[in-house]
Structures are given as C-alpha cells and as structure tokens.
C-alpha cells in the first residue's frame, strides 16, 4: 500500500528530482557505449542473402528507436487507462509527459529508416505496410499532443486525449505483426523481417545496450517533463509554493 502514496504529485515530485541525475548519467554512458560498440566493434558487413556494407550500422539507432516508439505508446495508453479508471491526476500527467519522447523516437525511426532504405532499396520511402504503420503511429502521437493542447480545461484534455491513445493502441500489434509476419507472401514488403535469433551476437549485444540507453533516456525526459507539468497543474497549492521557495533558496 505504501507504493500508492507515490501517485500523489506532492510525493512524486521530489522523488523524480532525485532519480533524474542517476537516469541521465546511466543513459549517457549506455548510449555512448552502445554507439561506440556498434560503430567501431562490429563487423564491416551485415550478413544475409544480400550482405550490406557499412551503412547497415544505422540499425544501432533505427531499431532501438523503433522499439521505443512502440513501447512508449504502450506506456502512454497504459497511463491513460489508469487515469480514466482510477481518476489519478499523476497518471494523466505521466501519459502527457511520455508522448513527446515517443513522438521523437517514432520520427527518428522513420528518418533513419529512410537513410537506410535509400542505399538498400534505391528509394527514400515506399508505402510499405511496415513503414506506413509506423508513420500512422507518428500521427497518433501528434494527434494526442494536438488534442491535449487544443482543450483549455486540463481535466477534459486529459480524458479526451486518453481515449484517443487507447483507441490508437491497435496500431502497436499491427506494426509488430507487419515486421514479424510469419508468411512473407501475406505481407510482401521491402522492409526486411525481424531476425534477432539469427543475428551475430556482437551486433545484437550492441543493439541491446543502445536500446537500454534509450529506455533510460526516456525515464530521464519523462521525469523532467512531468515535474514541469506538476508545477503548472499544482501551482496554487501550498506544497508547490514551498518547493519553489526551497529550490530558489538553494
């Protein structure tokens, strides 16, 4: 039961402030380590039926960003559902704080995918089901943020955007299925299938380190953003006034 006390913004705010530096350092170390490992300590060519040269290293950014884009949307939808069911203000704020980071990773996945696609397929973009579904996910993030910003009343904005996030949840299994389709004839696409089981261990290891780094980076940005939202939402409360005075005094 003690865990539920952290659903209070007054309790969560100082906890988030203590965690942010730790997550920031861990994220920086993991991301830098993952990038170095992937760019300098992995094979010059990616094996397979059509071996790819140095440009394959974009996967060390592209794949973790794509994974995080789906994972963070699950987080947004999850917090939204908790907020609707239990009417917890902090859940809505956490969902709102997570969405921008998810949108950034989705854009990064699309952008790096285009750079990978040009030398691999001869085109920057194709209306491939895997690419198109990721683009729709990006629009869902933007729609969530736009809807939340368009409604002046925070409570109504929380509820409306939460419903949109939950409805859009259908896109996550669509993206996953399109990438891991068991029958290539049913989902013919330029984008290659996920093949972690057959991936060279050195490449897989560096990719997982990079993914962990982006995951921890997400914690950092979400906690920083939710602290700002708490201050905005709770600006008239005594505890916020005391917290601001204490931080200014330091």
Q: Keyphrases for this structure?
A:
0% strand; globular; 8 helices; Four Helix Bundle (Hemerythrin (Met), subunit A); mainly alpha; 250 residues
CATH class term: Mainly Alpha
Q: Structural class of the secondary elements?
A: mainly alpha
* Low-confidence segments: none
Shape: globular
Give the number of DSSP strands: 0
Task: Output the CATH topology.
Answer: Four Helix Bundle (Hemerythrin (Met), subunit A)
In terms of DSSP E residues, the strand content is under 5%
> What is the tally of helical segments?
8
**Topology as a string of helices (H) and strands (E):** HHHHHHHH
Into how many domains do the coordinates divide?
1
Query: What's the pLDDT, averaged over the residues?
Result: 86
Q: Describe the biggest sheet?
A: none
User: What is the CA-based Rg, rounded?
Assistant: 20 Å
Q: Helix share of residues?
A: over 70%
CATH architecture: Up-down Bundle
Cα distance, first to last residue?
A: 33 Å
């Amino acid at each position: 039961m003690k865990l539920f006390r952290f659903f209070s913004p007054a309790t969560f705010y100082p906890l988030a402030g203590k965690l942010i530096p730790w997550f920031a350092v861990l994220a920086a170390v993991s991301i830098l380590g993952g990038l170095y490992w992937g760019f300098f300590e992995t094979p010059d060519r990616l094996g397979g039926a059509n071996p790819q040269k140095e440009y394959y290293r974009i996967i060390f950014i592209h794949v973790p960003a794509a994974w995080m884009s789906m994972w963070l949307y699950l987080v947004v939808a999850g917090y939204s559902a908790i907020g609707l069911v239990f009417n917890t203000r902090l859940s809505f704020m956490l969902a709102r704080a997570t969405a921008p980071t998810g949108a950034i990773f989705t854009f990064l996945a699309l952008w790096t995918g285009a750079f990978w696609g040009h030398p691999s397929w001869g085109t920057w973009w194709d209306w491939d089901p895997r690419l198109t579904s990721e683009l729709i996910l990006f629009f869902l993030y933007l729609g969530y943020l736009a809807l939340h910003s368009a409604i002046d009343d925070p409570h109504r904005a929380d509820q409306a955007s939460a419903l949109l996030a939950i409805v859009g949840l259908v896109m996550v299994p669509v993206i996953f299925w399109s990438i891991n389709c068991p029958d290539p004839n049913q989902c013919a696409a330029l984008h290659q299938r996920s093949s972690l089981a057959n991936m060279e261990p050195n490449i897989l290891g560096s990719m997982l380190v990079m993914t962990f780094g982006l995951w921890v980076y997400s914690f950092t940005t979400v906690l920083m953003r939710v602290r700002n939202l708490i201050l905005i939402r709770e600006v008239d409360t005594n505890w916020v006034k005391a917290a601001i005075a204490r931080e200014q005094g330091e």
